[in-house]
């Protein structure tokens, strides 16, 4: 499709706001995504889980305690129950009206302005989450108001392989924190378009090895300006940051 073609000829690193603009706002909230776009992010990184009633919701941790007024596992609450919780006050009282967004709400609100990098969190906790996401994306892909890059990544390579089979038109990536050998790279390259390394393990040598296997490199989470300039010079394909204001113009 047109949006994927445009996206494939991109040359400077794609500017990806981590959980929105998590350095400025409570992560993964509407306020955070709005801020990320104001600061120049092109793509929003969005972490997803499934509620008790199998609705895709946007949140980082599998539990509610760190970033909301709720307690315990997200999976134990319906989407309506999750909406009762305050997802902003932990960060600052001025965000007290923030709620846990549904993925559909984030798409509806931002699809005309932003691309999306969706991270499936802990897919082993949510059997069937790949099919749910494919079903949700099918509502939008190809529509005129969704003309931005959309990608899916996860630390779980098997989940990405499953998603790729369900929806080959959406590019997937695998996140890694540790070094990786060529054999593993070759396996991942069979279905993935990206291999997204933690910034502490990424150097030119690893970048070249990933690119030689035909995959793009999105590195995370780059929150230091000097490191940001270095990765921009290395011409990585994308940079994921809590501070979209640090990206070069
Ligand atoms: O974008 C990569 C990064 O988001 C993965 O780690 O824990 O921040 O979701 P995490
Ligand atoms: Ca993430």
UniProtKB/TrEMBL annotation:
Entry superkingdom: Bacteria
InterPro entries referenced in this protein's UniProt entry, alphabetically: GP_PDE_dom, PLC-like_Pdiesterase_TIM-brl
SUPFAM superfamilies assigned to the protein according to its UniProt record, in alphabetical order: PLC-like phosphodiesterases
Residues of the signal peptide: none
GO molecular function annotation: phosphoric diester hydrolase activity
Domain GP-PDE: 13-249
Biological processes, Gene Ontology terms: lipid metabolic process
UniProt xrefs under PANTHER family: GLYCEROPHOSPHODIESTER PHOSPHODIESTERASE (PTHR46211:SF14), GLYCEROPHOSPHORYL DIESTER PHOSPHODIESTERASE (PTHR46211)
Protein's name in the database: GP-PDE domain-containing protein
Species for this entry: Peribacillus simplex
């Amino acid at each position: 499709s047109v949006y994927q073609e445009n996206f494939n000829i991109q040359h400077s690193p794609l500017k990806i706001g981590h959980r929105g603009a998590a350095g400025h706002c409570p992560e993964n909230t509407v306020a955070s995504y709005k801020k990320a776009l104001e600061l120049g992010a092109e793509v929003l990184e969005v972490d997803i889980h499934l509620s008790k009633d199998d609705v895709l919701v946007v949140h980082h941790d599998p539990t509610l305690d760190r970033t909301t007024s709720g307690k315990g596992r997200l999976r134990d609450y319906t989407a309506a129950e999750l909406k009762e919780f305050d997802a902003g006050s932990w960060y600052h009282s001025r965000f007290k009206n923030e709620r846990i967004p549904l993925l559909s709400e984030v798409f509806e609100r931002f699809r005309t302005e932003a691309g999306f990098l969706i991270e499936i969190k802990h897919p082993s906790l949510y059997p069937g989450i790949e099919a749910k996401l494919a079903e949700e994306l099918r509502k939008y892909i190809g529509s005129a108001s969704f003309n931005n890059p959309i990608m899916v990544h996860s630390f779980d390579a098997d989940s990405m392989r499953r998603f790729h089979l369900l929806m080959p038109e959406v590019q997937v990536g695998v996140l890694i924190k540790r070094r990786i050998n060529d054999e593993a790279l070759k396996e991942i390259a069979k279905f993935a378009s990206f291999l997204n390394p933690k910034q502490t393990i990424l150097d030119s040598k690893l970048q070249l090895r990933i690119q030689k296997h035909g995959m793009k490199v999105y590195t995370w989470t780059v929150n230091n300006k000097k490191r940001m300039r270095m990765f921009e010079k290395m011409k990585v394909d994308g940079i994921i940051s809590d501070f979209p204001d640090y990206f070069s113009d």
